[in-house]
Structures are given as C-alpha cells and as structure tokens.
C-alpha cells in the first residue's frame, strides 16, 4: 500500500491538545506519523491506509466531545 496523508482541522489551543491528538492517532493501525501545528490548528497523519480517515475522525471526535474542541476532516 502507498502512504496516505490525511489532514484534520482541530481546535487545538495548546501543546496538551496536540499531544492528545498525537497519542490518540499514534495508537491506530498503520499510522506512521502524526504532525500537529497548534498555530494553524491542523493535524497531519501519514498512514499506510490500513485505518480509514473516517475511523481517525471518529477517534478524534471522542476527544473532541470530552474537550469541547472542534474536529473535522480538512477538505
């Protein structure tokens, strides 16, 4: 499988938010890298395609519901 890159818009306000996103996504099957940019409010995920972007979004939405931070798949 080829590497896939998925970008999410996440309402991160600090490194704690960024680290939570890294921790959540880093546990998912096939994820090779998670890069966060708090200033741009983006999370970029590199994976082998094993885990779908929707599954990643669903995992982030669990954190979103607990933290009150918005999460969406970037267009």
UniProtKB/TrEMBL annotation:
GO terms for cellular component: cytosol. GO terms for molecular function: copper chaperone activity; metal ion binding. It comes from the Eukaryota. GO terms for biological process: copper ion transport. Coiled coil: none annotated. Residues 3-72 form the HMA domain. InterPro entries: Copper_transport_ATOX1-like (IPR051881), HMA_dom (IPR006121), HMA_dom_sf (IPR036163). Keywords: Chaperone, Copper, Copper transport, Ion transport, Metal-binding, Transport. Pfam families: HMA. Transmembrane segments: none annotated. SUPFAM superfamilies: HMA, heavy metal-associated domain. Gene3D superfamilies: 3.30.70.100. PANTHER family: COPPER TRANSPORT PROTEIN ATOX1. Belongs to the ATX1 family. This is Copper chaperone. It comes from Tribonema minus. The lineage of its organism: Eukaryota, Sar, Stramenopiles, Ochrophyta, PX clade.
């Amino acid at each position: 499988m080829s590497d896939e890159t998925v970008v999410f818009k996440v309402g991160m306000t600090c490194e704690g938010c960024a680290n939570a996103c890294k921790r959540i996504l880093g546990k998912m099957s096939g994820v090779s890298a998670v890069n966060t940019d708090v200033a741009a409010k983006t999370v970029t995920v590199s994976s082998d395609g094993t885990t779908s972007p929707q599954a990643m979004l669903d995992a982030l939405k669990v954190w979103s519901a607990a933290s009150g931070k918005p999460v969406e798949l970037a267009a």
